[in-house]
Design brief:
Blueprint (H helix, E strand, L loop, with lengths): L11 E5 L1 H8 L4 E3 L3 E4 L8 E5 L5 E7 L5 E8 L7 H15 L9 E6 L8 E6 L2 E6 L8 H11 L4 E6 L4 H8 L6 E3 L2 E2 L6 E6 L2 E6 L13 H10 L4 E5 L5 H8 L4 E6 L2 H13 L4 H5 L1 E6 L2 H5 L7 E6 L11 H17 L1 E11 L6 H14 L4 E7 L16 E7 L1
Parallel strand pairs: 1-4, 9-10, 15-16, 15-18, 16-17, 18-19
Antiparallel strand pairs: 1-3, 2-6, 4-5, 5-6, 7-8, 8-9, 10-11, 11-12, 13-14, 19-21, 20-21
Helix pairs in contact: 2-3, 5-6, 10-11
Length: 411
């Protein structure tokens, strides 16, 4: 790491504007640059920022990020405490302990650390069998990687730790710490070799996780419970999985007794992964029996085409359509279009599974949008269920509540 960018041992003293101070006091973990009223010195990413209130009393502390408008990731509010190696090791261990008992031996793929909601802001850790995938969303963690890696090895023995970096961090990590996205790291240093694909178990099914180049950390672990719900509803049905990625919903549906499963995705790589996952599970009698079809197409176009047909279950789980607040209106329009088209493909007595992972579209707004499209279809319908975050993906503040799904049945 460039010595000029090495964090100081002396914390930055920070005071906030009144509104921001109140928000942090209530436990919100983000402080944006425009909320800073004063700071004792210029900081570099990884510095410890100590926040004092208007009475000059300790309010909280976190990691300073000089590379982002999200300037401080708050990790602690309350009584004064040192955010040292022991503090971070304690947070990591506590996060692991919260997952104890959540999964049986048939599941070895799940989230171990969910960023701010586990007290480790901007840091996510997923387990795939014996491989850990560490994803960073802030450069503030780069100087602290040796501490993090050492704590992981103490708390969760693994065959390797793969480093994944948010898009905006890749150049920063390369320039400052010589770290590359997707490389296996040991004691904070990148090795030349890299883990590519890992096979893991989820509720007894086998999946490939592309831990080096795949989306998120290599797999959509957050939809595990919704996949189980689809499995329970699939017996004897033809199932359509839109934006199918690697076929998770389809594989569960097949094991649940679906007559056929159809994956539609614009990516041939995603469809190839789905076919590989089905081959991994061909020993399951129900999976082997179900007809698996993959369609390379734009979902929006395909749903409105003549070839689509009708299905007993239609799963529509798009990628995030609103990555930024300015994308929100476009996302709402896209949701209306795709759910309207999807409803037309639900057979009589069939089920629509509508999901969203866009944090900028709030849950109630999303549910109302889906219901509005159902009403607009003119068909009689009934809401079966709503779901949100699984236990290994806790959401402790509003901006973390990105995942929502709704199950509707149509006459």
């Amino acid at each position: 790491m460039n010595p000029l960018d090495t964090p100081s041992l002396k914390p930055i003293r920070v005071r906030l504007k009144p509104v921001a101070e109140s928000i942090v006091r209530r436990g919100h973990p983000w402080v944006f640059a425009e909320s800073l009223r004063e700071q004792s010195r210029e900081g570099v990413s990884g510095d410890l920022a100590v926040i004092f209130d208007r009475r000059d009393k300790f309010l909280g502390a976190g990691l300073y990020d000089a590379d982002s408008p999200l300037r401080i990731r708050v990790a602690h509010v309350g009584k004064p405490t040192a955010l040292d190696g022991a503090f971070w090791r304690g947070r990591i261990l506590a996060s692991f302990q919260r997952r104890e008992g959540l999964f049986g031996d048939d599941t070895n793929g799940f989230r171990l650390i969910n960023g701010e909601s586990d007290g480790l802001p901007g840091l996510v850790l997923d387990r795939y069998d014996t491989t850990l995938v560490l994803k960073l969303y802030t450069s503030a963690w780069l100087p602290h990687l040796p501490t993090v890696i050492a704590a992981l090895r103490e708390s969760c023995p693994a065959s390797g730790v793969v480093l994944r970096l948010a898009r905006n961090l890749k150049e920063i990590a390369r320039a400052r710490a010589g770290l590359e996205d997707g490389k296996t790291i040991v004691e904070g240093q990148a090795r030349t070799e890299a883990v590519e694909t890992v096979v893991f178990r989820e509720n007894g099914l086998l999946f490939h996780a592309d831990v080096r180049r795949g989306q998120k950390t290599g797999f959509f672990l957050d939809q595990r419970e919704n996949r189980q719900r689809v499995e329970r509803l699939s017996a004897g049905r033809d199932v359509l999985n839109c934006f199918s990625f690697s076929g998770g919903f389809s594989l569960y549906a097949a094991r649940g007794g679906a007559r056929s499963v159809t994956d539609v995705d614009i990516s041939e790589h995603a469809l190839r992964s789905a076919r590989e996952n089905f081959r991994l599970n061909c020993g399951e009698a129900a999976v082997a029996k179900a007809r698996h079809v993959t369609v390379l197409a734009n979902v929006f176009d395909w749903l409105n085409g003549e070839a689509a047909g009708h299905f007993g279950i239609v799963v529509i789980d798009p990628p995030s359509l609103a990555r930024k607040a300015v994308d929100r209106e476009g996302a709402l329009k896209a949701y209306r279009q795709v759910f309207s088209a999807g409803i037309r493909r639900v057979a009589s007595g069939g089920i629509l599974v509508a999901a969203s992972c866009s944090a900028h579209v709030r849950a109630e707004e999303f549910y109302q949008l889906v219901r509005d499209e159902a009403l607009r279809s003119g068909r009689r319908f009934r809401e079966l269920e709503r779901s949100a975050h699984a236990a290994d993906h806790p959401a402790s503040f509003a901006e973390a509540e990105y995942l929502k799904a709704m199950f509707l049945t149509f006459d």
